[in-house]
Amino acid sequence: MVHDRRSLTDFAGIDFDYPRIESTASFDSKQTGLAARYAEQVAARPAGESGFYPLVDGVEALAARLALIARAENTIDLQYYLIKCDATSTAFIDALLQAADRGVRVRFLLDDVFTSGMDADFAALDSHPNFEIRIFNPFSRGPLGRAWSAMTCPGRVNRRMHTKSFTVDDQVTLLGGRNIADEYFGARRDEKFDDLDVLGIGSVVGGVSRMFDSFWQHRLALPLPAFARMPGDPAAGLDRLRLRLSESSDSGTMYSQTVVRTAREFLRGVDANLDWAPYELVYDSPDKAIKSKSGPSMSISRSLAKTVRSATERLIILSPYFVPRKDGIELLCSLKRRGVEVIVITNSLAANNHVAVHGGYAPSRKPLLRNGIRIHEARPDAEVPGAEIFAASGAKATLHTKAFLVDHELVFIGSFNFDPRSIKLNTESGVLIRSKKLAGQFEAGVDPALGVYTYELFLDDRGRLRWRGLENGREVIRKTEPQAGRGRRFVAGLMRLMPVRGQL
Is 162 a catalytic residue? Predict the structure, then answer.
């Protein structure tokens, strides 16, 4: 017990025993509008099936969140890795605050990795009687702040909550890879993320609510006063925040008008296209964030590896941060030896927003190619659904989708990357859906895009790495990382030499 307490202490004023108000997900929301809307369909399905609707388009993904917030009557539970101070985040927080004003209980759990400078606004929101914020695994505040945490307790702060969920009235939930920031929803001119969420209705929602509660009630999920420098008058801060939210509204733009229009029609589209299918909800225990408690039993990686091994015909992996170690390479190669077609789609160096990760991934390419694994790297000039309204013509595209397909019938959608960080350090979540319809949609989106929006890697007759792709309608073969400058290539090469692959 002493060992556990020391692992949760960085001697900087974080009170992990700070008292918390007990609360759990609402299971009495059967009289809400969302419950009534889907009650007949849910009742007609066995417990092992739920209804699913994929969210590929960034505009629709934001509209889905705003539409569901607007329809919330009892509760909104959400957990995210990051939220930024930008246009979509402003609209998102404004909608949540309006829901709290009309009596909806909002519980917002956020990882602390990208929250610098946000404590005052969080305190303001937390002062609302219906809005509670908890921060997962917080860094130290004070003069040295994050640096002090990194020095005094690296084993703790290196473990982050990468889990993402969004649940309304315990009736509808969203899972996937998106955080709350402009690039995930096609609202940045210079950058656009190709990402994927899935909406779920039915028994899967109760599972997500139980997952959320396990994190919300965890010792690492702290109220702000346990670690933050609290403002003297949070309620006055809430008034100022409301004014800023009002002044930041961009309701007159084409993008915002499209979001509003899409939100208005969103649930009708879900009703017409909901796919009911067997599923398995998978997620890491929050204890994975405690080094002394972490281990294989806390991780979803075993379950996902078992699913990957079950492939007999085809495996397609989409992972923006793909860093297979020796065991991962052997797993994929063993599938290929059994006759399975294996396709890996990840970011090119030019498209990757984490050059260090690319440096960790690069050494795996030749071993995989030698064993017949197909590798495609997403291009920085790829088209991203939903980004065409706002993004400039030269906006950089980055693959951020975390998904895979097995044998034309099983699809995983979630937050899990095929890298050591997702396997050993971060908490992750997702859902395995056994649906030929969804798998067909997945393949129909991926297969045609490979020749247009990716470079295919291959080894020439001398075993040298080459990239094949279309440029201006003509096939070209590149000898170096396409569309990446010398400086970027140098940094990626340098990172290959650093002993950090286990942290990527």
Answer: yes
* Cβ–Cβ under 8 Å, residues 191 and 398: yes
Half-sphere exposure at residue 476, Cβ-oriented, CA atoms within 13 angstroms: 14
Catalytic hit among 164, 288, 291, 376: 164
**Which residue among 250, 407, 408, 436 is the active-site one?**
407
Catalytic (active site) residue 291: no
The model's pLDDT over 130-187, given as tens digits with 9 standing for 90+, comes to 999 999 999 988 766 677 777 777 778 889 999 999 999 999 999 999 999 999 999 9
| Gyration radius of the chain over CA positions | 23
Q: Which is catalytic among the residues 169, 182, 284, 419?
A: 169
Which residues have a Cβ under 8 Å from the Cβ of 427 and sit 6 or more positions away? 159, 160, 161, 162, 163, 215, 283, 284, 285, 286, 288, 289
407 flagged as catalytic:
yes
The answer to whether 134 and 10 are in contact (CB under 8 A) is no
Domains and CATH numbers, the chain: 2-14+45-273 (3.30.870.10), 299-503 (3.30.870.10)
Which whole number is the average pLDDT over 233-256? 89
- Cβ neighbors of 303 (< 8 A, separation 6 or more) are 280, 282
Q: Is the pTM of this model over 0.85?
A: yes
Active-site residue, from 162, 288, 291, 396: 162
Please say if 169 is a catalytic residue: yes
Of the residues 291, 358, 376, 402, only one is catalytic, namely 402
- In the chain the first and final C-alpha atoms are separated, in Å, by 30
- The reply to whether 218 belongs to the active site is no
